[in-house]
Design brief:
Keywords: Hydrolase
Organism: Pseudomonas oryzihabitans
Protein name: acylphosphatase
Number of strands: 5
Largest sheet: 5 strands, mixed
Radius of gyration: 12 Å
Shape: globular
Family: Belongs to the acylphosphatase family.
Catalytic activity: an acyl phosphate + H2O = a carboxylate + phosphate + H(+)
Helix content: 25-40%
């Protein structure tokens, strides 16, 4: 199976609403590896690796997020795979 990778920035009410942990859970369900973290400007940043089909499903989920989230924008770009083997919630000083 060929792997693809995406790097993304998600805007809206995405911090303080369980967005990162929910993203980790959904990524694990879909077999996607990578990471997610909060940014100081209120956005969430992510790196996703997986099959084209899994990444398409993950993108749809990112637009929705958990129940308390309100996503107003998302920028995803194709990037090189880093060969990640799990999905992590990265902590920041945000």
């Amino acid at each position: 199976m060929a792997k693809s990778a995406r790097h993304g920035l998600i805007s809206g009410r995405v911090q303080g609403v369980y967005y990162r942990e929910s993203t980790r859970q959904e990524a694990q369900r879909l077999g996607v590896t990578g990471w997610v973290r909060n940014l100081a400007d209120g956005r969430v940043e992510c790196h996703l690796e997986g099959s084209v089909e899994a990444l398409a499903q993950m993108e749809l989920w990112l637009w929705q997020g958990p129940a308390a989230a309100e996503v107003t924008g998302m920028e995803l770009e194709e990037v090189a795979c880093a060969g990640l083997t799990d999905f992590q919630v990265r902590r920041t000083d945000a």
